[in-house]
Write a structure and sequence with these properties.
heterodimer, A: about 350 residues, alpha/beta, 8-stranded parallel β-sheet, 7-stranded mixed β-barrel, 9 helices, 17 strands, B: about 450 residues, 7-stranded mixed β-sheet, two-stranded antiparallel sheet, 15 strands
Chain lengths: ~350, ~450
């Protein structure tokens, strides 16, 4: 595990966002902080907001990281880690769904951090890919669109990946969604079944499937980039080929279909035994779905599947998807020849459900 | 086997003899009908129909002929050639600099250049000048089409670049190759040594090879496959002699009925299927058939300029001949050389002849052609104006009377037969040619 939140002390009183730098460079702006002192257990930075002391437990490198500083709570949050391709802003914890396996259960409260995210994005390294997730980010669709438009106007090099249930787009959004600012935005849209009852049951919201298809229609007509995402559950595994047929038929405009193994977090933690399907011996419906979608030109990627749980001929579809800061391997993985290509397991994956077989 | 039915987006199903008419549920489930309130299905259908159309835009693919001179005189020579020692058959300085300037002005980040001839390695100095001029492009791909008669250190140096590869002719066994191309066993041996050396040094991916087949006496299928498989080549484009230029004079029979050729092609594909099933260590394919097959399932496979619709000339690719003349295709260049019809569309110095191009392109689509509109293969098929001109001197023949149409009717008929075959060996090869991970092509839609 890599800690994204660290203890800190700051001169300032209000929250602020800075980019941490080990050395001076000629692109320094008002939100750059320079490392001025370094001890084994702390790093001290100086910026226009005053001094900032960050507690460190190991030899972490923060150079060119963007952090938000919360002096009141004595914390810094690493919003954009320069060394990582996995940087995601949590737009809100509110959601209008209650997915049975939600890894990030929703909350009623909302903390408005759009201004912080905008500043952080502006300070990100060139060509960075930034994620936005929730909760449901499009509950704040106006703010979200404004963020993308404002940042892309100055930083057209950035790309975005936004996780959304796709149910809050409307016809009037098409002109915005198809504008230049959204060229480098990919919408990650979950779909769990091609049948309303099953999809609605999984996401805990009646009418969700119908609204989702309307949202997908808006994205199609906007020429938006869309990544379909399906988490494998005991309830939808056998339905996967039917979903693949539907995707090949009507969702071929999407860039990719990501089929994902379950993460034992949030709601799924306590329901893991009920929801989780160990696919090592039950891969057939997944294989069938992959072939059906790929045949019609919809590329399929397998996320969160350790390579040893995938039959050899389908392993080319596997993506080492688990973010570095929440990835672990089983002890058996030490001798695996494919470990470097493998995404391993989520840090919180139950040890007895790993079943790793060295390749 | 029944009736093959498709719609404009390219969806298809098979209606076996004696089957009932499709009901609404079947049609909706397979993309042939849409519920009136299903806007997603409606728009995605229309998006697919539009995506079936090729959208050639920026010029990013050039076929360059730095010299027409050649050190071989093959019996079927495709391009007309000039003797090795002749003068006036290479780019002059004016032409070369005009091409360089043209490259500077291209509005693309990706460039693909094929050096044709003649034998382009006779003028590697010109080839290098062009390659050097392309440094500014983010993506580059250069193919040197050479007979590999002589491979010197200069060519080997050039091949060290990851963006340079060679394409060559391999007509089959040494005997056939000698008869059709080199006219001498010693020269064929030299060619085979050169080919082996390049593959040993750079791997089989550095070279693509294709055979030119004499239709009146094609080699035994397995002999031809072996000739390629022995070098590690897995993709074979079975290409009959194209009756133009020299070839027309020496192979009069090639203009006759092509039925025997289709039969040969079919036998070839079936042997590939059997051999792929027996030896799983590699996958052999007939690349043009694979292309037809992929177009039946997928959208946007339009980079093959011989099979796309519409297929406007002089837009995204262009041929520049040894004398700086511009042609829309390599075949067009041959037609001009052989005096059949002058299809030059300008010169690299003076630019494109836009008016002539517009006349040529007046009929560059199958959409609206009565024969094509009635054909279930229309979504997958294409248009080849130059082929029509070369064979019939006109572009308005009823399509079903053209060679192009008959060839593709044959190709797609074969594809349909194979797609609906129950033979596991067939389904295995189809899955490979379509790039699927699963062992067999999944069963496709059949009306009950």
């Amino acid at each position: 595990m890599i800690n994204l939140v660290l203890a800190a002390r700051a001169d300032a009183e209000a929250r602020y966002v800075v980019r941490l730098n080990d050395r001076q460079s000629n692109d320094f702006g008002a939100n750059d902080a320079l490392l001025v002192d370094e001890r084994p257990d702390r790093k001290i930075y100086s910026s226009a907001f005053g001094l900032l002391e960050i507690r460190v437990a190991d030899e972490s490198c923060f150079d060119r990281d963007v952090v938000s500083v919360d002096p009141q709570r004595g914390l810094v949050e690493r919003l954009v880690r320069s060394s990582s391709p996995h940087n995601t802003f949590l737009a809100t914890e509110r959601c209008d769904q209650l997915c049975v396996m939600c890894s990030q259960p929703p909350k009623k409260t909302h903390v408005d951090r759009w201004a912080e995210f905008e500043m952080a994005a502006r300070l990100a390294l060139p060509d960075a890919l930034l994620g936005i997730s929730g909760g449901e980010p499009t509950l704040f669709r106006r703010e979200l669109f404004a963020l993308i438009e404002a940042v892309q106007a100055d930083r057209p090099d950035l790309s975005w990946h936004i996780l959304s249930n796709g149910q809050h787009f409307c016809e009037d959004d098409i002109s915005q969604l198809s504008s230049e600012a959204f060229l480098r935005v990919t919408w990650g849209i979950p779909i769990y079944a091609a049948a309303a009852p099953l999809h609605d049951e999984i996401v805990g919201k009646e009418g969700a499937y119908r609204q989702l298809r309307e949202g997908l229609d808006v994205l199609l007509r906007s020429g938006a980039h869309v990544e379909l995402r399906t988490v494998i559950l005991s309830s939808n595994l056998d339905h996967l080929p039917a979903l693949a047929h539907h995707a090949g038929l009507h969702l071929g405009f999407c860039d990719q279909w990501s089929i994902m193994q379950l993460e034992a977090a949030g709601f799924a933690k306590n329901r893991f035994a009920d929801l989780f399907v160990p696919t090592a011996g039950r891969f057939a419906p997944i294989g069938e779905a992959i072939d059906a979608a790929e045949l019609y030109g919809l590329p399929v990627a397998l996320f969160n599947f350790p390579r040893c749980h995938i039959p050899k001929n389908y392993r080319g579809h596997a993506v080492a998807s688990i973010s570095d800061w929440k990835r672990k391997f089983a002890s058996a993985c030490a001798e695996c020849h494919e470990r470097s290509a493998c995404g391993g397991f989520f840090e919180w994956h139950p040890a007895k459900a790993m079943g790793a077989v060295p390749l | 086997m029944g009736e093959f039915t498709s719609n404009a987006s390219g969806r298809f199903y098979l209606k076996p003899r004696n089957s009932t008419e499709a009901d609404q549920e079947f049609l909706v489930a397979n993309g042939f009908a849409i519920a009136s309130d299903d806007r997603l299905a409606w728009h995605s259908h229309h998006a697919r129909v539009l995506a079936r159309l090729a959208k050639p835009e920026k010029l990013d693919y050039l076929i360059l002929v730095p010299t027409l001179r050649c050190n071989l005189a093959c019996s079927y020579c495709q391009v007309s050639r000039a003797p090795l020692r002749a003068s006036g058959f290479d780019w002059n300085e004016k032409t070369t600099s005009a091409i360089e300037e043209m490259l500077d002005g291209l509005a693309t980040n990706a460039i693909k250049i094929e050096f044709q001839g003649g034998e382009p390695t006779l003028r590697l100095d010109l080839v290098k000048r062009i390659i050097d001029r392309c440094d500014r492009f983010a993506e580059r791909s250069f193919v040197i089409c050479t007979n590999l008669s002589e491979v010197g250190p200069e060519l080997l140096d050039l091949l060290e670049r990851a963006d340079v590869s060679v394409s060559t002719s391999l007509d089959g066994s040494s005997l056939v190759h000698s008869a059709q191309r080199t006219r001498s066993t010693a020269m064929t041996d030299q060619f085979l040594r050169n080919l082996r050396e390049i593959i040993a040094r750079f791997g089989p991916g550095k070279v693509s090879a294709l055979p030119t087949i004499n239709q009146s006496s094609p080699p035994p299928v397995d002999e031809l496959i072996d000739a390629f498989a022995d070098f590690g080549f897995e993709s074979i484009h079975l290409r009959p002699v194209n009756f133009q230029g020299f070839a027309r004079k020496r192979h009069p029979s090639s203009a006759e009925d092509h039925r025997a050729w289709w039969a040969y092609h079919e036998e070839f594909v079936h042997r590939l299927i059997a051999r792929n099933h027996e030896d799983r260590s590699r996958v052999l394919e007939e690349s043009y058939f694979s292309l037809c097959l992929r177009r039946m399932f997928r959208l946007g496979i339009d980079r093959h300029v011989d099979l796309r619709n519409p297929n406007p000339l002089g837009t995204d690719y262009l041929v520049i001949d040894y004398d700086g003349q511009l042609y829309p295709t390599d075949e067009a260049r041959m037609l001009a050389r052989s005096g059949i019809v002058d299809l030059s569309i300008g010169t690299v110095v003076d630019g494109l002849d836009v008016e002539k191009l517009a006349v040529l392109n007046a009929y560059s689509t199958t959409i609206g052609d009565p024969a094509c509109d009635a054909c279930p293969y229309q979504p997958y098929c294409g248009r080849d104006l130059v082929d029509d001109l070369s064979r019939y001197g006109r572009i308005d023949l009823p399509q079903h009377e053209t060679f192009f149409c008959q060839k593709h009717l044959y190709m797609f008929d074969l594809a349909v037969h194979l797609i609906y075959s129950h033979d596991p060996a067939v389904r295995y090869s189809l899955a490979r040619w379509l790039g699927l991970a699963g062992e067999y092509l999944p069963p496709q839609v059949v009306l009950a």
